[in-house]
Amino acid sequence: MQYIIMLTIVLGLALSDFITGIIKGYITGTLSSSKMRKGGLNKIGELIVMATACGLEIGIKALGHYYSAAELAGVTGTVTAILVFGYIVIMELISILENYAEINPDSAGWIASLLKRLKNVKEENDNEKRN
Q: Computed over its alpha carbons, how large is the radius of gyration of the chain?
């Protein structure tokens, strides 16, 4: 059940980002079918990555039973899925807020400070994944 919830959250955020991107493009006069196509394909890619992470978690847990390391395998799979999920959620939230800041310039003040914090978290996560 947790996999369905994770995928649903990622799908909802991707859809929200896509829609706010369309609204932003309409308002700023930069609406482009090639950008929408690329954005849509990026969202499909995110869903595939999240589904792969969930599948990997299931596979690692199942494999752990064969090597008498079920608990370790379970933790490894869970950490993998949660890291991928967390990264995608943060990335989508940042994108949605950036779109909203352009849609509603009056909100740019509080969004700018929030985006700065979220981008710092994202950069820290990126650095941890590289190490």
A: 18
